[in-house]
Amino acid sequence: MDLKKLLFIDRRLIYLVVAVGALIPIIRPIGLPVVPTEPVKKLYDFVQNLGPEQTVIVSFDYGPSSEPELNPMAEAIFRHLFERKVKMLVMSLFPLGGNEVAKKELARISTEFNVQYGVDYVNLGYKDGGQAAMKRMAVSIPEVFPNDAEGAPTKDMPIMQHARNYGDIAIVISLATGVIGEWWANLVNAQFGIPVSVGCTAVSAPKYYAYLRAGQMMSLLGGLKGASEYEKLVRDGYPQIRATYERPAEKKIAASTGMDVQSIVHVIIIGFIIFGNVIYFMMMRQGGK
C-alpha cells in the first residue's frame, strides 16, 4: 500500500464528509444529552422567580455574524420571559445590526404568546453612546429612549411606567459579542448593583468567567452550549414550549440541534487527526520521511 497517497487525499473529500456529517443531525436530530451547568441554571432559576409585576432588560449587543450562536439563546430567553409574563425592555448597544437582529427575533417569538406591545414588551431600538447611555439609564430610561425602534414615543406606553430607571429593573440580560457585556458587568452591576447576566459567543466565554467568579455577573451562558442548556431547562419546565421546539421548522434552528451538528463535526475532525497521525507513524516505521 502506498501510504503517501493517503496523506494527500483531495481536501474536497474531507469537506464533503464534514458537510454530510453536519447535515445528518439537521435532517434528523440525534438528541445528544445536554446537562445544564450551574451558571446557566442560575439565570433560569432567577427568571422562574419573576412575575408580571417585574421588568427586565434584554440587550442585543451582537450582530448578524454571531446569530448562529446567540439567536437560539435569545429565543429560549424570550420564550421563558413571555411564559412568565415578565415585562421586557428590548434594546441594543451594538451598532452593526444589533437592532435588526432584535426586531427579527422579537417579531417571530412574540407571535407565539398572548402579549401586547407597549404593555408587556417594547423594542427600544439601538442607542449610540455605549457606557454613556448605560450611565444615563440609571437616571431615566425614558430620557435615553424617548422613542422606540419604530419612532413611536415611549413616554405614554404603559410598560415605561414600570421602567423609570435601574431601580425598576430586576435584571439586565446582555447577549453580547465583543466588550459590551463587560460594560454591563463592570459598570451597571458594579456601580448600581443591578444583577447582570451575559450570554456570549464561545470564544468570548473565558474572559467572562473572571467577572462571574468576581461576583460582577450573576450568570453566564457561553456559546451554543450555553444556549442548548437554557433551551433544555425551558423545554423541560414548560410542555407547551417543548411542543414549539418539536415543530419541523424549529428543529433546524434549535440550540440542541446545533450542538448535535457541532459534536458530529468535532468527532469527524478528531477522526481525521487520528488517521493522519497513524499514517505518519506507519510511514516512519517503513523508513519514510
The CATH architecture of the largest domain: 3-Layer(aba) Sandwich
Main sheet overview: 6 strands, parallel
Summed up, the helix count is 13
SS strand fraction = 5-15%
The CATH C-level class name of the largest domain: Alpha Beta
- In whole angstroms, the N-to-C terminal distance is 16 Å
CATH topology of the largest domain: Rossmann fold
- Cα gyration radius (Å): 22 Å
The overall pLDDT average reads 90
- Structural category: alpha/beta
Describe this structure in words.
The chain is of the alpha/beta class and 289 residues long. It has 2 domains: 3-28 and 261-285; 38-249, Rossmann fold, CATH 3.40.50. It has 13 helices and 6 strands. A 6-stranded parallel sheet has the order 3-2-1-4-5-6, sandwiched between helices.
Short description:
This protein is α/β, with parallel strands linked by helices. The chain is built from 13 helices and 6 strands. The chain has helices at residues 3-6, 11-27, 38-48, 67-83, 98-110, 131-137, 141-144, 180-192, 205-213, 223-237, 239-245, 248-251, 255-285, and strands at 55-61, 87-92, 121-126, 169-176, 196-200, 219-222.
Descriptive labels:
289 residues, Rossmann fold
Secondary structure layout:
Layout: H1 3-6, H2 11-27, H3 38-48, E1 55-61, H4 67-83, E2 87-92, H5 98-110, E3 121-126, H6 131-137, H7 141-144, E4 169-176, H8 180-192, E5 196-200, H9 205-213, E6 219-222, H10 223-237, H11 239-245, H12 248-251, H13 255-285
Parallel strand pairs: 1-2, 1-4, 2-3, 4-5, 5-6
